[in-house]
Amino acid sequence: MPSLSSLPLPLIGIALAVSLILMQELGYRCQRLMVRWGRTKADGEGAGHLLSAALALLGLLIAFTFSMAASRYEDR
């Protein structure tokens, strides 16, 4: 079995994009089934928590990026 570093980068990117789209579709269909069975409401009551988590992760990514850029600038 080849290691991940020996695979071509476009193949990894395409596989990642396809898997993300498939997982999004799977989550959408699971949510529709749960609404149909009456376990959750259709108004998207949990969307606020997901948005908060996604924005927090984005903030961490931006903070680490600026931190690395600042340290490289100081080194020069």
Describe this structure in words.
The chain has helices at residues 9-36, 47-75. Helix content is 75%, strand content 0%. The model has no long low-confidence stretch (mean pLDDT 85). By secondary structure, it is mainly alpha-helical. The radius of gyration is 19 Å and the shape is flat. It folds into two domains: 7-44; 46-76. It contains two helices and no strands. The protein starts with 8 loop residues before the first helix and ends with a helix.
What is the helix fraction of residues, given as a range?
A: over 70%
Strand content: under 5%
What's the SSE pattern?
Answer: HH
Estimate the mean pLDDT confidence.
85
Number of domains as seen in the coordinates: 2
Total count of strands:
0
The secondary structure category is mainly alpha
Largest sheet properties: none
| Number of helical elements | 2
- Low-pLDDT parts are none
Envelope shape: flat
Q: What is the end-to-end distance?
A: 42 Å
Radius of gyration: 19 Å
Describe what is shown at a glance.
The chain has 76 residues and is mostly helical. 75% of the residues lie in helices and 0% in strands.
Overview features:
single chain, mainly alpha
Topology, element by element:
Elements (H helix, E strand, L loop, with lengths): L8 H28 L10 H29 L1
